[in-house]
Fold this sequence. Notes:
Blueprint: H1 2-13, H2 15-32, H3 37-56, H4 59-81, H5 96-120, H6 126-144, H7 149-167, H8 171-198
Helix pairs in contact: 2-3, 2-8, 3-4, 4-6, 5-6, 6-7, 7-8
Amino acid sequence: MAVWEFVVNYLHKNPIELLGAVLTVICVWLNTQQNPWGWLVGILGIICYLWVFYQVRLVGDFLLNIYFLLTSLYGWYHWRYGKGNMKKLPISRLSLPKLMTYVIAGLVLGVIFGEILARYTSASVPRWDAIATTFSVIAQWLLAKKKVESWGFWIFVNVIYVGIFLVQELFATMLVYAILLALAIKGYWQWKLELISNN
Length: 199
């Protein structure tokens, strides 16, 4: 009974987090299906999480969600209208040099951003927050471009976020990111198989 009471109390105290969690899962599931409307559902989830992250002082995640808001609009348009020829945007992949460039850039910028957050903000877990933030920026951009490697970056990011939200006791969000981890794995294999079949 104590566990049930804890769950009910948690959901009662954190309805915005719960709504953001549900909308985010729906968004990512639609993204794995290449449905452009997932981006618009995601925007509603982003608005919820802007409030949540502001409340718990996850500065990197707050700033990241502003970026997500802008790239979601771009992703929705890009997925619907392709490369300006009003055709569905196809899945593609990065060359190895471009992939390595993104990985190195994510690590370098993550370390720099982590130091900035640690020294100049009240961020609660600055370095992990920064690494997750920089790689989320990369993953989101590549997802908007329909690059299959975007899902690999999301797998990495979601593992970090599960740990961050466990420490922050944002249990609904932690569960969401565990689900997002599973969806990222599904998205990777699904997109990779489609890419192989199209070639």
